[in-house]
Amino acid sequence: MGRRNAQRKNIAMLDSDDDDNSSVSSSSTIKSDRLSVLGTKEVQLDKDSLLEQALDALYEKRGSTREGALASIIDAFNSNMQHQFVEKNFATLLHQCLSCIKKGSSKEIALASHAIGLLALTVGCGDNAHEILEESVIPLSQALKSRSESSKKLLECLAVVTFVGGNEPAEAKRSMQIMWQLVHPKLGSNVIAGKSTAPVITAVVSAWAFLLTTMDERTLDPKDWQESISFFSDLLDKDDRSIRIAAGETLALIFEMEGLEKFTAEAEGSTDGSVQEGKKSWEEFTQVQGLKTKILNQVRSLSAEAGGKGSNKKDLSNQRNLFRDFLKFLEYGYCPETSMKIGGNSLQTSTWSQLIQLNFLKHFLGSGFIKHMQDNDLLHDIFGFMPKKKYLQGVERKMSNSEKRMYKSPNSVLNKARTQFLNKQRMLSKARNVGYFAFNIDD
Q: Is pTM beyond 0.85 here?
């Protein structure tokens, strides 16, 4: 409180009726409409001081003041890796952002959610990241039940803090279930059943798929696989193109993880026993085969969809490209390979899992994506990416991406992907030889 009171004597925030000549002069100055300094004389403030002031402003009563401070914090975390500030103020920033989520407007909740996600990506794996997850999951869950306008950012935040801070499969499952309840509430749940908007459905599917990339598929119930696959297949028939694209990416990931095959194997393996049990298992097996056929036909149709009147050409092109890649994967087992230049070096993906992780984090970081890819060690590990400046400093890249995933801390977020990654490589090798769908379908 002493630090906060002392700072209040020297600064005034957004809403104050300050002298019009008040200003802050610095190459990294927080925008004048977000944070200003009292007095007619310009004051030089370093980046840490500006962040300290923004943090202090989160205690203010006026929501617009807190919103401006959160926007300043987000700008700072996007433009530089704020390790020194985080080391000193980690707990304070986390709890003030959570307070904003509990009492703020929809705009404030969205900004606070974004800030917490950036905080998690900055601290990386470890005890602090796990604390962020455990402290955030209940406030985020409660906010999702009653706040539709900020749901998108809340979902992205929950996904990011779970991705970075989760140590056990149960923690990822917990977050995925919170997301799932928004679009697929069960009877008796505390979720208010209502029609979700297209942006919320898209955000749920994208966040759910992002966390699925961290899961060992053997820990998932085969019956859950069937429920989710049926739901995503239904989404492919929705009018909204963003929903179809998100559902398509998620189904591609599920097939990469052999989710439907696991349900089929369970049905085939349970045919022993009574005649009634055998009949039920055969019905389930037939249902799975029918679902496969349905999805294949949906993918073929969406890969060649003609644009209608008023259709957005860019979105239509994105959909066609995605489902063409999906169709190639289903028929021949080839995953799409992508490559993008960052600071002179190539960032590459070769699996659906990596592509979904890249797209999600790129979208979440927005303007801060390039900076984080250049300087964030966590992202370097996730994507096996070596920035040029690190290479020039003598840090040679001696291990392949798969080897890096095998050689890591047991508590690392990447440890959860080890078995999944190896299974995918074996599956892809097999698929290239025999084709992904090992059954006959009449065209």
A: no
